[in-house]
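User: Can you recover a sequence for this backbone? Please restate the input before giving your answer.

Assistant: Of course. Working from this structure:
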């Protein structure tokens, strides 16, 4: 084999091994991060990448020996060593990869810096987690829920719900573990098409993250890093009002309302459930919205939640008095035996509204 070809193969193996080793380290950090939530983390992706990196290292070693020796006998020995390592590595890798879930796509090279690893299952779908740089440049946890329908057709693309949290340093599902059940039930009842749900960690440094969103909606709602990472790793519709929406429940409701009112150019619809709102701040956020298209917002509260109903009506009246372009609806009819069942039904109503508005 020509010496120049051996050198080329050596460089390719070294670059591939470096990338795989880095990817394995990212996956390993994700596994350790999942322990914070006491969830069962998926170790197979990290093991596959580590095994592949080790195989590349063996190739680099063998090719390096072949280049140094520069003799036919040395080349034959190197090739034999490579083949032996490849057989062992392929057997181990195949055993691990054969049981890996097919519903989760491998990150593309463009998104290699943002690796998402499976951390559990919820509402019949798969829950993934990765670390995405926030608006301040710091890494933050982002949970992505893939519905059960995600793995049924490898070509389908899904609309997105960005799920806001009102608790600093936490994702919304940490406080509302049943929120995905509400999303899934809307699909099961034929009220909405399946959504991919993206739950970013709420910013820290303040006890009230939603006040930050209302005060600086242009900076917080326009999260290009989040949209790019999710779009690169998962089969979602292109980021924009035709395929992306925003939702907030309880403490995260004001965040969703502010993001939806301020950025109708990014979110085609917004829904806020059981929230308490600052009508003046939200009116100001709506006034700063770019373009001529008004936001579409649903404010939903249970019938017996009189404070939530009154707060939603106050926002609707304030936006109407300010002659805002925003189209605001309220939902106040849901009632059930327990607050948990009411929340499930409210989320289902919100998801149905988001699906209907995006379809327009």
């Amino acid at each position: 084999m020509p010496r120049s070809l051996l050198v080329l193969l050596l460089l390719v193996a070294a670059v591939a091994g470096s990338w795989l080793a880095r990817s394995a380290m990212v996956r390993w950090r994700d596994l350790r991060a999942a322990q914070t939530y006491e969830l069962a983390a998926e170790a197979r992706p990290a093991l596959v990448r580590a095994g592949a990196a080790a195989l590349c290292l063996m190739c680099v070693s063998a090719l390096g020996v072949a280049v140094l020796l520069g003799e036919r006998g040395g080349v034959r020995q190197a090739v034999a060593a490579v083949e032996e390592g490849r057989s062992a590595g392929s057997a181990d890798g195949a055993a691990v990869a054969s049981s890996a879930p097919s519903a989760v796509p491998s990150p593309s090279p463009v998104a290699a810096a943002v690796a998402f690893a499976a951390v559990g299952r919820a509402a019949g779908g798969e829950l993934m987690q990765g670390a995405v740089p926030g608006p301040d440049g710091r890494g933050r946890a982002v949970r992505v829920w893939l519905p059960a329908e995600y793995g049924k057709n490898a070509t389908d693309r899904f609309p997105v719900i960005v799920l806001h949290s009102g608790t600093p340093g936490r994702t919304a599902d940490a406080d509302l573990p049943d929120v995905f059940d509400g999303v899934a039930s809307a699909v099961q009842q034929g009220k909405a098409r399946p959504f991919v749900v993206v739950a970013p960690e709420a910013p820290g440094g303040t006890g009230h993250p939603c006040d930050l969103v209302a005060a600086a909606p242009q900076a917080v709602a326009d999260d290009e890093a989040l949209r790019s990472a999710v779009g690169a790793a998962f089969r979602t519709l292109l980021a924009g009002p035709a395929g992306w929406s925003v939702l907030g429940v309880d403490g995260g409701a004001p965040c969703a309302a502010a993001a939806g009112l301020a950025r109708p150019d990014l979110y085609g619809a917004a829904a806020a459930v059981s929230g308490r709102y600052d009508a003046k701040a939200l009116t100001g956020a709506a006034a700063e919205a770019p373009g001529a298209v008004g936001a579409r917002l649903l404010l939903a509260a249970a019938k017996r939640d009189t404070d939530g109903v009154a707060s939603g009506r106050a926002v609707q009246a304030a936006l109407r008095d300010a002659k805002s372009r925003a189209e605001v609806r309220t939902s106040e009819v849901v009632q059930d035996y327990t607050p948990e069942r009411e929340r499930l039904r409210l989320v289902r109503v919100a998801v149905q509204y988001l699906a209907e508005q995006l379809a327009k």
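That completes the design. The mean pLDDT is 78.
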